[in-house]
Predict the structure of Histone-lysine N-methyltransferase SETMAR.
Amino acid sequence: RKKHEPRSDKVRTPQFVQQVQGIIDEDPSKSIRAISKDLQVSECTIRRIIHEDIRYKSYVMRRGQFMS
């Protein structure tokens, strides 16, 4: 098999990861979709940065049932 070179136009650079982390720290309630739209990259890239590089977990707050 022929060895291949990694992509040279990789988006997940340390500077880009820092930029995403800054956006999240500034506004933790901002959605992944909104961040990806602002930075003009795919949602999958932002999701991968959040989970693998920054090691944050995204979640949606849910209210429990009212117990009577």
